Amino acid sequence: MAKKILIIDDEPIILDCLKFELEQTGYEVETAANGVEGLDLIRENYYNLLVTDLMMEGMSGLEVLRVAKEIDPELVVIILTGYGEVASAIEALRLGASDYLLKPCESGELLIRIAKSLEQQELTRKIKIYEKILPLCDTCRKVRFEGADNSNGEWLELDQFISRKTGLGISHGYCPDCYKQAMEEIEELKHKLMG
Question: 48: which of 3, 41, 89, 113 fits an S-S bond (Cβ 3.0–4.6 Å)?
């Protein structure tokens, strides 16, 4: 599935050129002529990556970045900036931008930066997924419990793990299937002893 990119710039020629180049590479691209229009699109649609100009009429790229990250914290943002705006570009990195490029930028360099940023986004997503997986031993069925210090953790029985993780007590009993199986085993044992 093609990655979706939004470009925000108040210069129509830049929008058209970037859109053309990115679509030729296989990206799905939408454009906005200013920050307000771009943020409306971000509120209504999902994008993998945003490329925005830093200096625009009305809303600046820094304002766009700040609001876009509030709307979608995982959105990758690349800032395009003029030569004299490098300090602002560094501020953009501090605010959560993934990268910045000086304008005019070579299309090859932009494509490389976009690919690297999207790759980083995918790795971050995978890490978040793996963090949610419960580490369970295939043999003994114990669960690894990592305390607040994030050490290697200790391996606990499931009921101990749940108790530590949630603070809840565990009551033991039989589910209907296990109860039936236990009764069958008791009957078999009675027949062996009596017979």
Answer: 3
How far apart are the C-alpha atoms of 88 and 76, rounded to whole Å?
18
Identify the pLDDT of residue 142.
82
Q: Are 65 and 52 in contact (CB under 8 A)?
A: yes
152: which residues sit within 8 A by CB, 6+ positions away? 146
For residue 124, how far is the Cα from the chain centroid?
Answer: 6
Tell me: the pLDDT tens digits for 40-99? 999 999 999 999 999 898 899 999 999 999 999 999 999 998 766 777 878 888 888 998
Backbone torsions φ then ψ of 154, nearest 5 degrees: -120, 155
Residue 58 or 149, more confident: 58
The answer to whether the pTM exceeds 0.70 is no
Compute CA distances 76 → 68, 114, 173, 176, 186, whole Å. 10, 9, 49, 50, 62
| Average pLDDT score, the chain | 86
Nearest by Cα to 30 from 10, 60, 51, 13:
51
> Where does residue 162 fall: left (phi above 0), alpha (psi -120 to 50 degrees), or beta otherwise?
alpha
Q: Where do the structural domains in the chain lie, given as residue ranges?
A: 4-131, 143-194
Task: Classify the C-alpha dihedral 157-160-166-171 as positive or negative.
Answer: positive
